[in-house]
Amino acid sequence: IGEGEACVFIIGGLHGDEPKGTYACLELIEYLSKNENLTSKYNFIIIPLCNPDGAKEFKRRNYNNVDLNRDFYTKSQPETSSIINIFHKHKPIILIDVHESQGSMPIIIYANNSKSTHLANFISLKNNVQALLAADVGQSANFAEKENIYGIILELPGLSWKYGNGTIIISSIIETLDLYISKEYKTLSIN
Length: 191
Description:
The protein is of the alpha/beta class. The chain has helices at about 20-35, 35-40, 50-55, 80-90, 115-125, 140-145, 165-190, and strands at about 5-10, 40-45, 95-100, 105-110, 130-135, 150-155. The chain has a six-stranded mixed β-sheet, sandwiched between helices. Mean pLDDT is about 90; it is low at about 185-190.
């Protein structure tokens, strides 16, 4: 979705028992289809459901009993291999992986590179969302770190409907990302 040069890659449903990520991605597609400001600047690649077998059975793991969010280093599963192939084809500036937690507030888990750290702190301040460093266990954020792009995992609160299916917070984060990138590029062009 969109005609901009910079690509934003968003995935949901890596864990089949976390449906809010999928719902938020589907609703985000509708939101973006009505937002010319963002779609004129960015090209959004959105995969709402990365683990259809797990979702069908409402299980965390895929058909082969593998946790896909621990498979971004080994790439042993067709789902993660496909995600990585799409990633390399489109060369995004950020990877956003949308999950669901058992908490009542959203959390951002960010890749361990300076780009992601600065972005996560900016998002945290602008949206009042807790930001935590990702453990190095082969998650999507770790993959983004190795590719030297922005990488965040957004944990949507499963125990709260304050944010609906999560579209409220994910759209706010994308608007904040746009603000951050605009400021970053202005700073780079001044120097």
